Amino acid sequence: MTTATTTTKTMVMRRMMVMMMETMRMTMGVMRREGVMATVRMGTGVMRREMTMVMGRRPAGMAKVTTALWLKVMLVMMLVMARATGSTFPSYVHIGALFIPHMEQEYEAFRFGIYLHNSDPNMTMAPFQLQSRVDHLHSANSFDITNAFCSQFTRGVYAIFGFYDKHSVHTLTSFCGALHVSLLTPSHPADGPMQFVLQLRPPVSGALLGVLGRANASRLLYFFDTHRGLSVLQTVLEAAAHNGWQVSAVNVEENGAEEALRTAFTSIDSAHDPRYVVLDCEPAVTQKTITQIINIGKNVKGYHYILANLGFSDMSLETLQRGGANVTGFQIVDYTKPMVQKFMQRWKQLDGREFRGSHDGPFKYTSALSYDAVLVLAEAFRYLRTRRTDILRRGVAGDCLANPAVPWNQGIEIEQALKHVRVSGLTQNIQFDGFGRRTNYSILVMEMKETGPKQTGFYTESMGLKMPTDNVVEKELTESNNHTYVVSTIMEAPYVMLRKNSELLEGNERYEGYCVDLALEIARHVNIKYHLAIVPDSKYGEKNSESGTWNGIVGELIYGKADLAVAPLTITLVREEVIDFSKPFMSLGISIMIKKPQKSKPGVFSFLDPLAYEIWMCIVFAYIGVSVVLFLVSRFSPYEWRPDDSAATFDDGGGLGGRDLGASIANGGGLSLVGSVYGGAGGAGMAGTAFVGTVSTEQPNEFGIFNSLWFSLGAFMRQGCDISPRSLSGRIVGGVWWFFTLIIISSYTANLAAFLTVERMVSPIESAEDLAKQTEIAYGTLEAGSTKEFFRRSKIAVYDKMWSYMKSAEPSVFVKTTAEGVARVRKSKGKYAYLLESTMNEYIEQRKPCDTMKVGGNLDSKGYGIATPKGSSFRNSVNLAVLKLNEQGLLDKLKNKWWYDKGECGSNTGDSKDKTSALSLSNVAGVFYILVGGLGLAMLVALVEFCCKSRAEAKRLKLAFGEALRSEGRLSLTGSLGENGRMLGADFPRALHALPVMRHGHSVTDLS
């Protein structure tokens, strides 16, 4: 501990030392003359000095005289010292201090109080120094408390400052009562009267009962912490029995889990508003319980929380109040007092390296009580000094384990001095009654407002609870209108985007987008000032299953960091339990985004696409079947046989000069001609010619198998044919075939234009079912959002199967942001599908590079809503604003503006439309291929026919095959070869140019 000696005190001490030295010099002269050995001990609380002088021996009588003289001198010296010091009061007052764990700030406040006292230059206020003997306990059990207390008592402390809990209170107070050592404590007041214990903390039960009585609370939920004892709970239960209140008490140590708290709230949820909840816990435990209350959604309008401790300003209560709940509490430190403000200014300027706990969070009320303890101790010992009370220990060490216990003689005087203190400290007036309890204290009644903690009243022992009756509603309304509210949103195109020159702008002007415009319209209707705040973690909001906390925008609202949320936030059941939503400002559903497949180019035989391949096969079979049926009915029907009888007689009056010619000509028609030529004897010419031709009679049928196939093909191709059926059965076959081909050709022609002019995109996925039943294409959702929650909670088999795949897929198919999901779709080459809201899907489809597309319908139906904390006063105003904007058509205008008017992919109009409707060579290439192929096939068949005919003629006429080929070739080129264009044999009479034919009924006669 640092000590300082003032100039005034130094001068007094020097004067005292001079007087002592003069007296010593006189005494030593006498003693030398008397020849006596004397030992002189001089001392004060500041220094000690011992001098030993050995003189010669003198007679006994003379020694007695000298001794008496020496005693007189010493008495004079002591009187001088007493006159110089004022009394037998110690210059250093040793104070013991016991600190249990987690009391770092309280320890630094105690140290700071001692430092301020010892460095006070005013001798009247600080005529002595305070010196602390501190023990930091690792635990507050009875064994550690006993060791620490005995150590303090043995070292001769005059009083002890310390903390206790329910485990150590009886041990510590019993030692104090037995050994008469005063204990000054800021801990919670213990039950029952205790000797030598002074309670710095006033009881809160009176103020609590005053608030409950004023509220007429007929039913309340009471959370308590047994570390504070049960005195307040007992007082409340007694008042409840007297007033007919229904109290449900819950120990937060044993039932602090969220589910237990949720169950506890059922006892008051059926009550009418407001529902009162008392938190009788220390600020740290209260803060933890408040967090759990927020997590279960009970920080809403209709609940009134009363915090039964004296540190209302020590806790963060904005999150509880922003949900709509009323919050009332108590404060022992009045921060409006000049003394407190001056202290806080010096406290904030402390060096954190020397006072390490001085900057650990807000200044706690227990730290203020620790500082006030130093003021009380200094005032008490100052009072003892003015009364010249002898409290010197004189080297007498106490023994706390003596049996029986030996109390300290001066302990009662110190206790009475402490109870006599009346001083003004950080916790206002400090005064004790005969039992060591605070009296004449004042407690501030606080409420949490939108602008922060506000004092609404006070409580004193004499006057009770006093609440001001002034109407402050108008003032609060003015403060509310001047308040700038925080609107939480998320950076997501097209809802919120940075402007191109955002670095040159400030505030809300830096952003643009659908939600930016919507927030502006909402603010105009609600008449508030607002500030757009981008959520730090870029998440919409998901509940952590382990800790129960929320992240994202939902967490910003729950924990009081935002007053409003204007974002593409989906309305879901789990979110509705903890925050409020307005009417939907946009309807949507979950959709599938895939990479846009390449447009399929038409194939070579794309002209076959208008009809399925099955139809083409059926047409082929129908064609063959009709041809066969036509052939059969033509064979069996007698009307298809056409009779053809012919006879010819050739008569020539000339002769052949006595030569006979016989010829037999057979043709393919069955006609046989036999000619006899007779020449007259000695005649130069033909005297007479006679030719008789006989023709065999047959009935030909035009519909052979090949002609039937030709007829069917001509009808199918909408072309004519030289032959047609004559029989009724044949005409029936032809008629139904013509009708069949009419319908088929018409249908084909109708679809042909669409198939040839439209370039189709073949998508591998068309629905969620397609995704679920395949494994080649991965699919996922946003890591924290309503889409993921939809699949996680869905009981539909398809969606449940998809969720099972997504949660177990490696690598993970979930993405942190929508931009990351879109980028993954674009880079995956069609191997990843992203599940997201349809509105976002449609927007991205309109953005360059225009390579994504929405497939299938929406998987569900939901909406985006504007979110507010539970019970917020904005909810009704925002609802009305959304409905009004919808009726005015402004919501549709905003969507068209940001989705389509600013789209980058455009639509198929203008030149692009003309280009897509024009046929290219690839569209009809197959037709040309068939044409070329048909021509080539015809040439090949003609060549085969030519060779076959030449071979047949060569055999018939007994010619070489090469000669026959040449003859047939000349025939094909010139159309004539030999007599009458025919290839004749060598034995055929070349002079024969004509054969006489007998008429029918004549015969050929011999001309001789």
TrEMBL record:
It is a multi-pass membrane protein. The keyword DNA damage does not apply. Keywords: Cell membrane, Glycoprotein, Ion channel, Ion transport, Ligand-gated ion channel, Membrane, Postsynaptic cell membrane, Receptor, Signal, Synapse, Transmembrane, Transmembrane helix, Transport. Residues 484-901 form the Ionotropic glutamate receptor C-terminal domain. PANTHER family: IONOTROPIC GLUTAMATE RECEPTOR (PTHR18966). It comes from the Eukaryota. It comes from Petromyzon marinus. This is Glutamate receptor 4-like isoform X1. The keyword Signal applies. GO terms for cellular component: postsynaptic membrane. One of its GO terms (molecular function) is transmitter-gated monoatomic ion channel activity. It is found in: Postsynaptic cell membrane. The chain crosses the membrane at residues 611-633, 736-758, 926-948. InterPro entries: ANF_lig-bd_rcpt, Glu/Gly-bd, Ionotropic_Glu_rcpt, Iontro_rcpt_C, Peripla_BP_I. GO terms for biological process: cell surface receptor signaling pathway. Residues 494-559 form the Ionotropic glutamate receptor L-glutamate and glycine-binding domain.
